[in-house]
Design brief:
By secondary structure, the protein is of the alpha/beta class. The protein has seven helices and eleven strands. It has an eight-stranded mixed beta sheet, sandwiched between helices. Strands 1-2-3 form a three-stranded antiparallel beta sheet, with no helix packed on it. Helix 2 links the parallel strand 4 and strand 5. Helix 1 packs across helix 2 and helix 6 packs across helix 7. The N terminus is likely disordered. The protein binds S-adenosylmethionine. S-adenosylmethionine binds next to helix 2 and strand 5. S-adenosylmethionine (SAM) binds next to helix 2 and strand 5.
Protein backbone atom coordinates (compact mmCIF):
# COMPACT_ATOMS: atom_id res chain seq x y z
CA UNK A 1 0.00 0.00 0.00
CA UNK A 2 1.35 3.37 -0.84
CA UNK A 3 0.99 4.78 2.66
CA UNK A 4 0.65 1.60 4.69
CA UNK A 5 3.39 -0.61 3.38
CA UNK A 6 4.28 -2.49 6.52
CA UNK A 7 3.87 -6.06 5.34
CA UNK A 8 4.71 -5.91 1.68
CA UNK A 9 5.87 -9.23 0.35
CA UNK A 10 8.78 -8.70 -2.01
CA UNK A 11 8.84 -12.35 -2.96
CA UNK A 12 7.12 -12.16 -6.32
CA UNK A 13 6.25 -9.24 -8.51
CA UNK A 14 4.94 -10.89 -11.63
CA UNK A 15 1.78 -10.14 -13.55
CA UNK A 16 -0.20 -12.97 -11.95
CA UNK A 17 -0.12 -10.92 -8.78
CA UNK A 18 -2.73 -8.68 -10.41
CA UNK A 19 -5.10 -11.62 -10.79
CA UNK A 20 -6.92 -11.21 -7.49
CA UNK A 21 -7.30 -7.44 -7.65
CA UNK A 22 -10.32 -6.04 -5.87
CA UNK A 23 -12.03 -2.65 -5.74
CA UNK A 24 -12.04 -1.10 -2.26
CA UNK A 25 -13.33 2.20 -0.93
CA UNK A 26 -10.79 4.69 0.39
CA UNK A 27 -11.29 7.19 3.22
CA UNK A 28 -12.81 9.94 1.05
CA UNK A 29 -15.36 7.55 -0.47
CA UNK A 30 -13.52 7.13 -3.76
CA UNK A 31 -12.49 3.70 -4.98
CA UNK A 32 -9.04 2.28 -5.36
CA UNK A 33 -7.68 -1.10 -6.40
CA UNK A 34 -6.21 -3.46 -3.83
CA UNK A 35 -3.80 -6.23 -4.81
CA UNK A 36 -3.99 -8.73 -1.92
CA UNK A 37 -1.03 -10.78 -3.14
CA UNK A 38 1.21 -7.74 -2.96
CA UNK A 39 -0.61 -5.98 -0.10
CA UNK A 40 -0.55 -2.88 -2.31
CA UNK A 41 -3.19 -0.35 -3.28
CA UNK A 42 -3.16 1.95 -6.32
CA UNK A 43 -3.79 4.98 -4.08
CA UNK A 44 -3.72 6.09 -0.50
CA UNK A 45 -6.32 4.23 1.55
CA UNK A 46 -7.04 7.56 3.27
CA UNK A 47 -8.49 8.97 0.05
CA UNK A 48 -7.71 8.17 -3.57
CA UNK A 49 -9.16 11.34 -5.10
CA UNK A 50 -7.81 13.47 -2.26
CA UNK A 51 -4.31 12.06 -2.79
CA UNK A 52 -4.35 12.42 -6.55
CA UNK A 53 -5.66 16.00 -6.39
CA UNK A 54 -3.22 17.02 -3.67
CA UNK A 55 -0.08 15.64 -5.29
CA UNK A 56 -0.56 15.78 -9.03
CA UNK A 57 -3.15 18.49 -9.56
CA UNK A 58 -2.57 21.00 -6.73
CA UNK A 59 1.22 20.64 -6.36
CA UNK A 60 1.72 20.06 -10.09
CA UNK A 61 -0.74 21.04 -12.80
CA UNK A 62 -2.21 24.05 -10.97
CA UNK A 63 1.23 25.56 -10.38
CA UNK A 64 1.98 25.85 -14.10
CA UNK A 65 -1.39 26.07 -15.77
CA UNK A 66 -1.57 29.86 -15.85
CA UNK A 67 1.90 30.29 -17.31
CA UNK A 68 1.56 27.73 -20.12
CA UNK A 69 -0.59 27.76 -23.24
CA UNK A 70 0.17 24.10 -23.82
CA UNK A 71 1.25 21.46 -21.31
CA UNK A 72 2.86 18.11 -22.07
CA UNK A 73 2.36 15.58 -19.30
CA UNK A 74 3.95 12.18 -18.78
CA UNK A 75 2.47 9.71 -16.31
CA UNK A 76 4.15 6.55 -15.12
CA UNK A 77 1.27 4.13 -14.41
CA UNK A 78 -2.12 4.88 -16.00
CA UNK A 79 -3.84 2.37 -13.69
CA UNK A 80 -7.37 3.47 -12.83
CA UNK A 81 -7.04 6.55 -15.05
CA UNK A 82 -7.77 8.79 -12.06
CA UNK A 83 -4.89 11.20 -12.67
CA UNK A 84 -5.77 11.57 -16.34
CA UNK A 85 -9.43 12.07 -15.44
CA UNK A 86 -8.72 14.83 -12.90
CA UNK A 87 -6.25 16.44 -15.30
CA UNK A 88 -8.83 16.49 -18.10
CA UNK A 89 -11.30 18.52 -16.02
CA UNK A 90 -8.74 20.73 -14.27
CA UNK A 91 -7.01 21.59 -17.52
CA UNK A 92 -10.10 22.05 -19.61
CA UNK A 93 -9.19 25.49 -20.93
CA UNK A 94 -5.56 24.66 -21.62
CA UNK A 95 -4.12 22.52 -24.37
CA UNK A 96 -2.95 19.30 -22.73
CA UNK A 97 -1.04 16.45 -24.34
CA UNK A 98 -1.08 13.49 -21.97
CA UNK A 99 1.21 10.52 -22.46
CA UNK A 100 0.97 7.63 -20.05
CA UNK A 101 2.63 4.25 -19.81
CA UNK A 102 1.00 1.22 -18.25
CA UNK A 103 2.34 -2.33 -18.15
CA UNK A 104 -0.88 -3.98 -16.95
CA UNK A 105 -4.03 -2.19 -18.12
CA UNK A 106 -7.10 -2.70 -15.95
CA UNK A 107 -9.81 -4.91 -17.35
CA UNK A 108 -13.24 -3.53 -18.24
CA UNK A 109 -14.76 -5.47 -15.32
CA UNK A 110 -12.72 -3.20 -13.02
CA UNK A 111 -12.65 0.24 -14.63
CA UNK A 112 -16.38 0.13 -15.42
CA UNK A 113 -17.16 -0.16 -11.68
CA UNK A 114 -14.94 2.68 -10.42
CA UNK A 115 -16.88 5.56 -8.87
CA UNK A 116 -14.71 8.58 -9.79
CA UNK A 117 -17.22 10.04 -12.24
CA UNK A 118 -19.94 9.90 -9.57
CA UNK A 119 -17.80 11.97 -7.19
CA UNK A 120 -16.37 14.35 -9.80
CA UNK A 121 -19.81 14.86 -11.24
CA UNK A 122 -19.17 17.30 -14.08
CA UNK A 123 -20.46 17.48 -17.63
CA UNK A 124 -19.93 14.15 -19.37
CA UNK A 125 -17.75 12.88 -16.55
CA UNK A 126 -18.85 9.25 -16.96
CA UNK A 127 -18.39 9.41 -20.72
CA UNK A 128 -14.94 10.98 -20.36
CA UNK A 129 -13.83 8.48 -17.74
CA UNK A 130 -14.87 5.52 -19.88
CA UNK A 131 -13.36 7.07 -22.98
CA UNK A 132 -10.02 7.38 -21.20
CA UNK A 133 -10.11 3.62 -20.75
CA UNK A 134 -11.65 2.52 -24.04
CA UNK A 135 -9.63 4.76 -26.35
CA UNK A 136 -6.98 2.90 -28.34
CA UNK A 137 -3.64 2.05 -26.83
CA UNK A 138 -0.37 3.10 -28.47
CA UNK A 139 -1.72 5.94 -30.57
CA UNK A 140 -2.50 9.58 -29.88
CA UNK A 141 -6.25 10.13 -29.45
CA UNK A 142 -7.82 13.61 -29.45
CA UNK A 143 -10.84 14.10 -27.17
CA UNK A 144 -11.36 17.67 -28.38
CA UNK A 145 -9.20 20.57 -29.56
CA UNK A 146 -7.58 20.83 -26.11
CA UNK A 147 -6.99 17.31 -24.83
CA UNK A 148 -5.05 14.46 -26.40
CA UNK A 149 -3.94 11.24 -24.78
CA UNK A 150 -1.53 8.54 -25.82
CA UNK A 151 -1.60 5.42 -23.62
CA UNK A 152 1.42 3.20 -24.11
CA UNK A 153 0.95 -0.41 -23.12
CA UNK A 154 4.47 -1.34 -22.05
CA UNK A 155 6.91 -1.10 -19.19
CA UNK A 156 8.49 2.30 -18.74
CA UNK A 157 11.89 0.63 -18.92
CA UNK A 158 11.17 -0.45 -22.52
CA UNK A 159 9.92 2.76 -24.05
CA UNK A 160 11.75 5.56 -25.78
CA UNK A 161 10.69 9.10 -24.94
CA UNK A 162 11.25 12.25 -26.95
CA UNK A 163 13.91 14.55 -25.45
CA UNK A 164 13.04 17.87 -23.74
CA UNK A 165 9.33 17.38 -24.18
CA UNK A 166 7.44 17.22 -20.86
CA UNK A 167 6.47 20.11 -18.61
CA UNK A 168 5.03 17.84 -15.94
CA UNK A 169 5.60 14.26 -14.82
CA UNK A 170 3.29 12.25 -12.58
CA UNK A 171 5.56 9.55 -11.18
CA UNK A 172 2.93 7.14 -9.85
CA UNK A 173 4.50 3.68 -9.81
CA UNK A 174 3.94 1.24 -6.96
CA UNK A 175 5.98 1.90 -3.85
CA UNK A 176 9.79 1.90 -3.83
CA UNK A 177 9.69 -1.12 -1.50
CA UNK A 178 7.69 -3.08 -4.05
CA UNK A 179 9.31 -1.78 -7.24
CA UNK A 180 12.85 -0.70 -6.32
CA UNK A 181 13.89 -1.08 -9.96
CA UNK A 182 11.76 1.94 -10.95
CA UNK A 183 12.86 4.45 -8.32
CA UNK A 184 16.46 4.58 -9.47
CA UNK A 185 18.81 7.25 -10.72
CA UNK A 186 18.82 5.46 -14.08
CA UNK A 187 15.03 5.66 -14.52
CA UNK A 188 14.94 9.24 -13.21
CA UNK A 189 17.70 10.20 -15.68
CA UNK A 190 15.69 8.75 -18.53
CA UNK A 191 12.63 10.72 -17.44
CA UNK A 192 14.68 13.89 -16.83
CA UNK A 193 15.97 13.75 -20.42
CA UNK A 194 12.40 13.64 -21.64
CA UNK A 195 11.48 16.72 -19.57
CA UNK A 196 12.03 20.36 -20.42
CA UNK A 197 14.53 22.24 -18.25
CA UNK A 198 12.48 23.52 -15.29
CA UNK A 199 9.91 20.78 -15.84
CA UNK A 200 8.36 19.41 -12.66
CA UNK A 201 8.07 15.83 -11.43
CA UNK A 202 5.65 14.92 -8.64
CA UNK A 203 5.54 11.78 -6.58
CA UNK A 204 3.95 10.58 -3.37
CA UNK A 205 7.19 9.06 -2.05
CA UNK A 206 9.43 11.12 0.23
CA UNK A 207 11.85 8.30 0.92
CA UNK A 208 15.48 9.38 1.39
CA UNK A 209 16.75 6.98 -1.29
CA UNK A 210 14.21 8.35 -3.78
CA UNK A 211 15.22 11.94 -3.10
CA UNK A 212 18.91 11.04 -3.46
CA UNK A 213 18.29 9.25 -6.75
CA UNK A 214 16.37 12.28 -8.03
CA UNK A 215 19.18 14.66 -7.00
CA UNK A 216 21.78 12.45 -8.68
CA UNK A 217 19.67 12.48 -11.83
CA UNK A 218 19.84 16.29 -11.99
CA UNK A 219 16.70 17.37 -10.14
CA UNK A 220 16.31 20.01 -7.46
CA UNK A 221 14.21 18.28 -4.82
CA UNK A 222 11.63 19.81 -2.53
CA UNK A 223 9.55 18.20 0.24
CA UNK A 224 5.94 19.40 0.47
CA UNK A 225 3.24 18.59 3.03
CA UNK A 226 1.32 15.49 2.02
CA UNK A 227 -2.39 14.66 1.91
CA UNK A 228 -4.16 12.96 4.85
CA UNK A 229 -2.03 10.17 6.29
CA UNK A 230 1.19 11.27 4.62
CA UNK A 231 3.62 13.73 6.16
CA UNK A 232 5.52 14.64 3.01
CA UNK A 233 5.48 14.29 -0.75
CA UNK A 234 8.17 15.17 -3.28
CA UNK A 235 8.33 17.77 -6.01
CA UNK A 236 11.44 17.76 -8.19
CA UNK A 237 12.51 20.23 -10.86
CA UNK A 238 14.78 19.37 -13.75
CA UNK A 239 17.81 21.65 -13.50
CA UNK A 240 20.25 20.30 -16.09
C1 LIG B 1 0.28 3.02 -7.82
S1 LIG B 1 -0.55 2.42 -9.28
C2 LIG B 1 -1.14 4.00 -9.82
C3 LIG B 1 -1.86 4.03 -11.08
C4 LIG B 1 -2.57 5.27 -11.54
N1 LIG B 1 -1.76 6.45 -11.61
C5 LIG B 1 -3.87 5.48 -10.84
O1 LIG B 1 -4.13 6.59 -10.38
O2 LIG B 1 -4.64 4.54 -10.76
C6 LIG B 1 0.88 2.04 -10.28
C7 LIG B 1 0.58 1.67 -11.71
O3 LIG B 1 1.82 1.49 -12.40
C8 LIG B 1 1.74 0.36 -13.24
N2 LIG B 1 3.11 -0.12 -13.45
C9 LIG B 1 3.84 -0.87 -12.60
N3 LIG B 1 5.07 -1.09 -13.09
C10 LIG B 1 5.12 -0.46 -14.29
C11 LIG B 1 6.14 -0.33 -15.28
N4 LIG B 1 7.33 -0.89 -15.13
N5 LIG B 1 5.86 0.40 -16.39
C12 LIG B 1 4.63 0.96 -16.55
N6 LIG B 1 3.63 0.86 -15.63
C13 LIG B 1 3.87 0.16 -14.51
C14 LIG B 1 0.85 -0.59 -12.47
O4 LIG B 1 0.27 -1.58 -13.31
C15 LIG B 1 -0.18 0.35 -11.88
O5 LIG B 1 -1.25 0.56 -12.75
Amino acid sequence: MKFCNKDISKASKNVSKYAQAEIVQSGDGSHTIFLPNLNETYHSTYGAIEESKHIFIDAGLKTIINSHEEINIFELGFGTGLNAFLTYFEGKNTKINYITVESNPLKESFYSKLNYHKIIDKDNSKEIFLKLHTSDWNRKVAFNENFTIKKINDKVQNIKLENNNFDLVYFDAFSPDLQPELWTEQVFRKIASAMKINGILLTYSAKGSVKRALKNAGFKVEGLPGPTGKREITRARRMV
